Amino acid sequence: QVQLVESGGGMVQAGGSLRLSCTASERTVNSHTMGWFRQAPGKEREFVAAISWTGGSTVYGDSVKGRFTISRDIAKITVYLQMSSLKPEDTAVYYCAAKFLPKSTVASEYDYWGQGTQVTVSS
Hints:
This protein is mostly beta strands. The chain has strands at about 5, 10-15, 20-25, 30-40, 45-50, 60, 70-75, 80-85, 90-100, 110-115, 115-120. The protein is about 0% helix and about 50% strand. The strands form two sheets. Strands 2, 4, 5, 6, 9, 10 and 11 form a seven-stranded mixed beta sheet that branches.
């Protein structure tokens, strides 16, 4: 069973930056698509970004395009989400997820999930 552990969340002012990390327990995840989702109170889980197992292909949700960057380090079995120009509406619990090929923006298609890390952006 693959375990995913997120870190890097916290509180930041609008316009600031944060980098989230997600480290997996097994190297088998290196053959998986990795994704980030977020969920704000009272809202459905929203797709943020995904990256292919090679790291050569990425996809982003419309609300974060141009502000967030997803990347992965195969050697460290870690995926990152660099968040810049943060807005109060980015406030949510951010979840890391993994699925076997191909990339997907649909949460139900992901097999493994982390526990989430809180990101709070103040105005």
